[in-house]
Design a protein that fits this description.
With 367 residues, the protein is of the alpha/beta class. The longest helix is centred in the last third of the chain and has 24 residues, at 313-336. It contains twelve helices and twelve strands. Strands 1, 2, 3, 4, 5, 8, 9, 10, 11 and 12 form a ten-stranded parallel β-sheet that branches. A two-stranded antiparallel sheet has the order 6-7. It has helices at 23-39, 60-69, 88-101, 118-121, 129-145, 184-193, 206-222, 245-258, 268-274, 282-296, 313-336, 349-354, and strands spanning 2-7, 44-47, 75-78, 81-82, 107-111, 149-151, 159-162, 175-179, 196-199, 233-241, 278-280, 301-305. The protein is globular, with a radius of gyration of 20 Å.
Length: 367
C-alpha cells in the first residue's frame, strides 16, 4: 500500500490574512512540501497539470525532475497529465527522460483535466475529449513498447519509422494510472491495458465512486489481467487535522468557505458527510480512510490533498508531520491486516522489471 500527497498547485489568497503568495513562492512551497513528504516517510508526491490561473503547475516534469535530484526514495507522479491536449510523443519523451534522471522512481496519471478552455488553447475540441484520450494513449502505449512505430490516427499527423528517445529505463515503461471521476470509458480504458485506475473521490459520494471502481475491476478481469480484486486501484481525498476535532473544524472552515472549488456550495458539514473530505482528529482520519477498503475493496494507493485553498506553508508542513507520524503508520498496519496474499502491491519500476520487463500487450486500438 502506497501513501502520498498530491497538489493541484492553486495560488489562493489566505482568507485569514488576506495575503496571496506569489507564483514563485507557491512553486518553491510545492518543492518544500515534496521534500517534507519524503522526510515524514510518505511514498508518493504527485503534481497536477494546469495551464491557467490560479494554478502554476504547467510543467510537471520540470518540477519532478528538480525534486528527483533532491530525494532518494520518493515516487514522483502526476495527479493529472493531460492526455487530451499534450502530444503523446512529447509525453513519451518527457517521462522517459524523467525515468532515467530519477532512477525509475516515476509513474504518472493520465486524465482529461477539468478546465474546458484548455482544449482550444492547444488546438483541440473538448467535444472530442474521450476519443482524444483513447487515441492518444494508444499511441503513447506503443511508443514506450515498440522501438520503431508506424502509426496513423485522427488527431495528429502520421508517424513513419519513428523512435521515441530516450527509450524507457531498462525497457520498462512508467506505470500508468488512468484518472477519472465520472467517465466509464476511462475505467474501461484502464482495464483494457491492465493499467491502474485512480478515482479522485474528493467531490463524490461513495456510491458513485464504487460504481466506477467496480466497473474497472470487472473489466480488468474480463481482459485477462487477473481477478477483479487484483486490479490496481488508487483513491484521493483531502484531510485537515488537529488534536481536537473542534479545533480542526474551526481552523479549516474559512479555507473551505473561500476555496475556489468548495466555496459557495454545500456547507463544510454537508461536504464532510457526503464526500471523503475529513476534518477532525488523526483518529477520525484513520477511521474514515480505513472505511474506504470496506466500500471499494483492497486497493494500492492513497493520496491526500494537503496544500489546497490558501493554507499557509507552515500549516501544511504541520499537517504532513501529523500524517507521517500519527496516521500513516497506523494505516499501513491496518491495511496490511487481512490483505489477501494474491492482491498485488502498487507497481514500481523494480517490481515491473522483476516481473519481466517489456510488455507487448494492448497495442491494438481501443475504440
Amino acid at each position: 500500500m502506497q501513501f502520498g500527497i498530491f497538489s493541484v498547485s492553486d495560488v489562493t489568497t489566505d482568507p485569514t490574512t488576506g495575503r496571496t503568495p506569489t507564483e514563485a513562492e507557491r512553486i518553491k512551497a510545492m518543492v518544500t512540501i515534496a521534500l517534507k513528504a519524503e522526510e515524514v516517510g510518505l511514498d508518493v508526491f504527485a503534481t497536477g497539470e494546469h495551464h491557467n490561473p490560479p494554478f502554476v503547475a504547467s510543467s510537471p516534469t520540470t518540477m519532478l525532475g528538480y525534486v528527483a535530484a533532491r530525494t532518494k526514495d520518493l515516487i514522483l507522479s502526476t495527479s493529472t497529465t493531460l492526455i487530451t491536449t499534450n502530444d503523446p510523443v512529447k509525453i513519451a519523451e518527457d517521462f522517459a527522460m524523467l525515468q532515467h534522471l530519477a532512477d525509475g522512481r516515476v509513474d504518472l496519471m493520465m486524465g482529461r483535466g477539468n478546465t474546458g478552455p484548455v482544449y482550444p488553447w492547444f488546438g483541440q475540441d473538448i467535444r472530442q475529449g474521450i476519443p482524444l484520450a483513447l487515441e492518444n494513449y494508444n499511441l503513447l502505449h506503443r511508443l514506450w513498447r515498440e522501438d520503431v512505430v508506424d502509426w496513423e490516427g485522427k488527431f495528429r499527423t502520421p508517424l513513419q519509422g519513428f523512435t521515441s528517445t530516450p527509450r524507457p529505463l531498462d525497457g520498462v515503461p512508467p506505470f500508468v494510472w488512468h484518472g477519472s471521476i465520472r467517465s466509464p470509458e476511462i475505467a474501461e480504458q484502464a482495464a483494457y491495458y491492465g493499467d491502474g485506475f485512480f478515482h479522485n473521490n474528493i467531490f463524490w459520494p461513495a456510491t458513485h465512486t464504487k460504481k466506477l471502481i467496480s466497473l474497472y475491476r470487472r473489466r480488468f478481469e474480463h481482459y485477462g489481467h487477473g481477478k477483479a480484486d487484483q486490479a490496481i486501484v488508487g483513491l484521493g481525498g483531502q484531510v485537515f487535522m488537529r488534536k481536537n476535532s473542534q479545533d480542526a473544524v474551526r481552523e479549516f472552515r474559512p479555507y473551505f468557505d473561500n476555496a475556489p472549488v468548495y466555496g459557495g456550495g454545500p456547507s463544510l458539514e454537508e461536504f464532510t458527510r457526503e464526500t471523503p473530505l475529513t476534518v477532525g482528529s488523526p483518529q477520525e482520519v484513520i477511521d474514515r480512510t480505513l472505511g474506504f477498503r470496506d466500500s471499494f475493496g483492497h486497493y494500492q494507493r492513497q493520496l491526500f490533498l494537503m496544500d489546497h485553498a490558501g493554507l499557509p506553508l507552515k500549516t501544511v508542513l504541520e499537517q504532513l508531520d501529523i500524517l507521517g507520524e500519527e496516521v500513516v503508520p497506523v494505516l499501513r498496519k491496518e491495511f496490511a491486516a487481512g490483505r489477501p496474499a494474491h492482491v498485488p502491491d502498487a507497481p514500481t519500476h523494480s517490481s515491473l522489471l522483476a516481473a519481466g520487463g517489456r510488455e507487448t500487450e494492448g497495442t491494438e486500438e481501443l475504440s
